[in-house]
Amino acid sequence: MSQGEAIPFAQAHAVAELVVDVLRPLCERVEIAGSLRRQRPEVHDIEIVAIARWENEPDYGLLETTWTPVNLLEQRLLATLGHLEPRLVENHRADGSIERTTKLGPAFKALVAGGIPLDLFITDAERWGCIFALRTGPGAWNIRLVDECKAIGRRVREGRVEAWRGSSSSWEPLLTPEEADFFRALGQPWVEPRDRHPDRIAISRALAAV
After folding, report:
1. CATH fold of 128-207
2. Rounded to a whole number, what is the largest CA-CA distance in the chain?
3. FRET partner for 99 with CA separation of 20 to 30 A, picked from 137, 186, 188, 203?
4. What would the CATH number be for the domain defined by 7-57+66-123?
């Protein structure tokens, strides 16, 4: 989460909705997350979670036409300039120096929209619920949630919930296509985004999905 200038909710939310509208044709799913989703009166950035849309595009050869799957979000994202621009991010090196670079990787893109820092997180359908919940936050809620779920044999790793199976002495990934699936996998009762606070965490083995 950026610690920059505070931006009124209404101003940031209007920009976020515009960005979602721009991204929607390039995505299977795209939603506003972060402090905007939690309806904070002021925010410092915009967070959006998306699943990229793939389409087959023709490659016309001399003898035949072949079809190649293309990630539309990767292919066309920066063509939306005017709405989105890359953002320089500080990388602190071990020698104490600071390097400012762009971050436009396949899972995270640092952008600017309407003068507001924007973090775009890209996931897949199997992990949507986990990533959407964690990117909604807040950070203190995430930290305690991930820590306390260990007591019932659950862990969150690489955007997935995993369950410990003593019979095979192994971790089994649990699918979380929706946010409710993520909560159920951890044994955490549902809490509305605006009410998520560490004191609302109540993980229960009895509620956890098996």
Report:
1. Beta Polymerase; domain 3 (3.30.210)
2. 65
3. 137
4. 3.30.460.10
Domain with CATH 3.30.460.10 in the chain: 7-57+66-123
List where CATH 3.30.210.10 sits in the chain. 128-207
Q: Give SS3 for 206.
A: helix
Q: Are strands 46-52 and 116-123 parallel, antiparallel or unpaired?
A: parallel
DSSP structural state of residue 90: E
Please give the structure tokens belonging to residue 187: 């044994």
Please give the Cα distance from 60 to 22 (Å, whole number). 29
Q: Examine the pLDDT at 98 and tell me if it is beyond 90.
A: no
Tens of pLDDT, residue by residue over 119-131, are 999 999 999 999 9
Strand partners, 71: 54
126: DSSP letter: T
**Calpha distance 150→148 (Å, rounded):** 5
The tokens describing 52, both together, are 């990229």
Contacts of 21 (CB under 8 A, 6+ apart): none
Pairwise CA distance, residues 76 & 68, whole Å: 16
Q: Across the chain, where does the E strand assignment appear? A: 7-8, 27-32, 42-43, 46-52, 54-60, 65-71, 85-86, 88-92, 98-102, 108-113, 116-123, 154-157, 160-165, 170-174
